[in-house]
Each structure stands twice: as structure tokens, then as C-alpha cells.
Amino acid sequence: MQDIQNLDDIKQMVNSFYDKVRQDEFIGPIFDEQIQDRWEMHLEKMYGFWQTVLLDIHAYSGSPFPPHARLPIQKEHFDRWMVIFTQNIDEQFAGPIADEAKWRAGKMAEMFNYKIEYFRNANQKPLT
Ligand code: HEM
């Protein structure tokens, strides 16, 4: 099995991942609800994001966290996201870059979840 090597591989990884995500009854509806008819734009953005992370080509310059801050998601959703992401890579790619993709995704899922929990708890505190 080959490693992730170029933009075509990134597109293959991203497209197949979001195909599976959209079919998943637990997290699929959360994406569709938010993205609606902007899927093409989302996929383009994600090609750029993963190119930047994995191939060192600066094709993304956004802030990954803010769009997630108000989504109705918690640890169980990130866990499902990670299972689909990991399986999807392992089905098609193997090597250091494929490993890096799984590692980075895991770290970001952890950080997103931590921030979401932190803000949720902070907002629940009484003001006094
Ligand atoms: C269950 C977990 C997750 C859900 C439901 C989710 C959902 C979404 C949605 C709906 C958007 C598009 C926002 C919009 O354009 O309206 C988005 C953007 C994005 N997501 Fe996630 N996401 C999840 C986990 C992750 C993880 C673990 C990563 C780490 C790789 C990630 C990386 C990104 C990035 C980079 C963007 C683009 C941000 C930008 O607009 O610049 N997401 N996500």
C-alpha cells in the first residue's frame, strides 16, 4: 500500500472520508445541517488544510477551531469522527504521512473537544 504523496492522494483521502461521514447517522446530519449546499467549498478548504499539514504546501490559512465552537458536539462525536478517519486512511494508505495524518487529526480532535467543553462550562457559571 502506498503512502499519501500528493494532492491527488489528499483529494482521495478527503473525498472518501466525507462520503463516509455523510452516510454516518450519528455525525452525518451535524455536517449536513451546518454545511447545507456549501459542500464543494468545504471539500476545497479541506484539501488545502491537509496539503498544508501533510505536504508542507501552504494552501490553507484559516482558523480551524471557530466553526466548531457552537456545533452540538461532544466527545462521542469526536470519537466517531476519529474512527471513520482512521479506518478510511488505513483502507487506502500506509506510511509515515498516513500516520502523521491520523496523529494530527487525533491531536486536533482532543484540542477541539477540550475547548468546546471549557467554553460550555465557563458559560454555565453564574456571573457573581
Ligand atoms: C464530530 C466532529 C466534527 C464535526 C461535526 C465537524 C464539523 C465541521 C463543519 C460543519 C465545518 C464547516 C463549517 C462551515 O464552513 O460552515 C468544519 C470545518 C472544518 N473542520 Fe471540522 N468537524 C469535526 C471535527 C474536526 C476535526 C477532528 C478536525 C481536525 C482535522 C476538523 C477540521 C476542520 C477544518 C480545518 C475546518 C475548516 C475551518 C475553516 O473554515 O477554516 N474538524 N468542521
Automatic annotation (TrEMBL):
Domain of life: Bacteria
Pfam families with a match to the protein in the record: Bac_globin
Any one GO MF annotation of this record: oxygen binding
Keyword vocabulary terms for this entry: Heme, Iron, Metal-binding, Transport
InterPro entries: Globin-like_sf, Globin/Proto, Hemoglobin_trunc
SUPFAM superfamilies assigned: Globin-like
Keyword Heme: yes
Residues noted as binding heme in the record, renumbered to the chain: H42
Keyword hit for Metal-binding: yes
Protein name: Globin
Source organism of the structure: Flavobacterium enshiense DK69
